[in-house]
Amino acid sequence: METAYVALEGDRMVTARTRAPGTARGELVFTTAYTGYEESLTDPSYEEQVLTFSYPLIGNYGVREERFESDRVHPRAVVARELTDDVAAWLTDEGVPAVDQLDTRDLVTGIREEGAMKCGIAAGSDATPDAARAELADCKGMSEHNDIGRQVSVAERRTHNPDGDGPRVALVDCGAKGSIADSLVARDAVVDTVPYDATVADVRQLDPDVLFISNGPGDPANFTAARALVEAFVGDLPLAGICLGQQVIAGALDGETEKMDFGHRGVNQPVRDLRSGRVVMTTQNHGYTVADPGRLDVTQVNVNDDTPEGLESDSLDIITRQYHPEASPGPNDSLEFFDDVLALADDARLPA
Questions:
Q1: Which of 59, 106, 111, 341 is the most exposed place for a label (fewest CB within 10 A)?
Q2: DSSP helix/strand/coil, 64
Q3: How far is residue 289's CA from residue 301's CA, in Å, rounded to a whole number?
């Protein structure tokens, strides 16, 4: 067995087994999801993070590319109680360090009590504690990754379903999961995925029926171009957002965001709709939240901590969700969100 080392803030060192060699650094976070590890590992919102799985066995149904949410693994490293050989081989091929045979319950408890923390990992035949400490020493906080969007966004526009009969959606790719575009295309929308730093002129040229800000990694304050788009088009186009997209839209409309202690990551987060009283289970992956909704109304809240899960404005034609209505993985309780978004766009297209 090749020993691996995980260096944590507070001068703590944890030993583990190497499953994929290499060194890495990042913010240590955890997910409570017990299925959907392929989707989680290819979710761009995990960029610059080290993902710990709280479920003890990861990989028990193999690795299938059709479940991927992007074209690569995004966490900088992976931690689990036990990883199967299939997942270990996949991560090795991807060049993503992975370790197991350590007490993930203790790690998760530490994150819940102390918050997400920086860590450094060294795995492989030449791994040493000093190498893990060196990675920790060079680790940045998530707010310091000022241009993280460049790491996860498309470099140029991509059009999905160009012959569709539905509304045209400009999807600003701040690290979008593939299932978001898929969910819109399934409703016959034409989806133009544009880079995270697209300009007002870029979007205006597309003549879209709705502007949609995607999920993505890190601090929403770093996505200034997406915020500028919201400020430019609010009141002229319907606006929609998921996860980081909700935070960006709220920030552009006089709201405020803040970093959470350990975030929401998993497929069993309960959300209450304040109008109907209905509670749905949702998939979530975020470390920031809306602290002040600004000019938007809070329509849904997290049952566990009352953080805003849905924001809307009837007068401005805005609808956002903090969770992932497209799931992938997780429950499909909220797929109607995409119908609501496209209904806003259809209404905007009607002749005056």
A1: 106
A2: coil
A3: 11
Residue-level length of the chain: 352
3-state helix, strand, coil in the chain (%, to 5): 30, 35, 40
Q: Report the greatest alpha carbon distance in the chain.
A: 71
Is 324 tagged catalytic?
yes
Asked if 97 contacts 132 with a C-beta cutoff of 8 angstroms, the reply is: no
Active-site annotation holder among 48, 243, 286, 309: 243
Alpha-carbon gap, residue 258 to 245, rounded angstroms: 14
Domain extents in the chain: 3-140, 149-349
> Is CATH 3.40.50.880 the right assignment for the domain spanning 149-349?
yes
Tokens of 150: 């460049």
pLDDT attached to residue 345: 87
**pLDDT tens, position by position, 96-124:** 999 999 999 999 999 999 999 999 999 99
Instruction: Give the relative orientation of helices 178-185 and 336-349 as an angle to the nearest 10 degrees.
Output: 60
Domain 3-140 maps to which CATH number in 3.40.1280.10, 1.10.357.10, 3.30.450.90, 3.50.30.20? 3.50.30.20
119-166 pLDDT, tens digit each? 999 999 999 999 999 999 999 999 999 999 999 999 999 999 999 999
pTM above 0.85, yes or no: yes
Question: Percent of the chain scored above 90 by pLDDT?
Answer: 97
DSSP 166: S
The question of whether 119 is a catalytic residue gets the answer no
pLDDT digit string (tens) for 327-342?
999 999 999 999 999 9
